[in-house]
Write a structure and sequence with these properties.
Elements: H1 2-55, H2 60-72, H3 78-85
């Protein structure tokens, strides 16, 4: 009797673990898709900024300064992180 209950409990636990793994797999897939979409949006924003900088005389200097300050503060460009995700 006890062996039967233990066996059934193990089956239920195994089933729960399989379902949890499926759920996690789905969440990871969603996260990857969202990250790819975010990377696409960042790329589009970067292209827009580049086009704007080329059209506005003098805009290049403040943006370059902001980039240098970000790097000095320990912030790295998004590009390398995005490449690692892909």
């Amino acid at each position: 009797m006890i062996d039967s209950i233990a066996f059934q409990a193990n089956i239920v636990a195994l089933h729960a673990a399989v379902e949890a793994a499926r759920e996690i797999k789905g969440l990871v897939a969603q996260s990857v898709a969202s990250t790819a979409q975010g990377a696409t949006q960042v790329d589009a924003a970067g292209q827009t900024i580049e086009r704007t900088v080329f059209r506005l005389p003098g805009a290049e200097r403040p943006l370059a300064l902001a980039a240098r300050q970000s790097r000095a503060a320990g912030l790295s460009p998004a590009g390398p992180a995005r490449i690692r995700v892909r």
